[in-house]
Amino acid sequence: MIFEPFYRNDKSRNKKTGGYGLGLSLCKTIIEAHGGTISVKSKFGEGATFCLNLPNSPQPI
């Protein structure tokens, strides 16, 4: 759900306080375009851990 475009957990956020809800959606799109995955684990009141997995490049960059 948090990777959906325009998703914002805190409904009090608006243009004045920042956030359009696009950041994680864009990250997911870019990572998947490179053959990778993104996931999140969270505990209420403790925070969240994001895991990004990208494949090795078949050629030197």
What does this structure look like?
With 61 residues, this protein is an alpha+beta fold. It has one domain: Heat Shock Protein 90, CATH 3.30.565. It has 1 helix and 2 strands. It has a two-stranded antiparallel sheet. The radius of gyration is 14 Å and the shape is extended. The model has no long low-confidence stretch (mean pLDDT 81).
Q: How are the elements arranged and paired?
A:
Layout: H1 23-33, E1 37-43, E2 47-53
Antiparallel strand pairs: 1-2
CATH topology: the name is: Heat Shock Protein 90
Largest sheet data: 2 strands, antiparallel
Q: Strand tally, please?
A: 2
Uncertain regions spanning at least 5 consecutive residues: none
What is the chain-wise order of helices and strands? HEE
- Helical stretch tally: 1
Helical content class: 10-25%
Q: What's the architecture in CATH terms? A: 2-Layer Sandwich
The top level CATH class name: Alpha Beta
Shape type: extended
Terminal-residue CA separation? 34 Å
CATH superfamily name? Histidine kinase-like ATPase, C-terminal domain
Rg measurement, Å: 14 Å
Find the structural class using helix and strand composition: alpha+beta
How many discrete domains? 1
Strand order of the largest sheet: 1-2
Enzyme class: transferase
Catalytic activity: ATP + protein L-histidine = ADP + protein N-phospho-L-histidine
Organism: marine metagenome
GO biological process, one term: phosphorelay signal transduction system
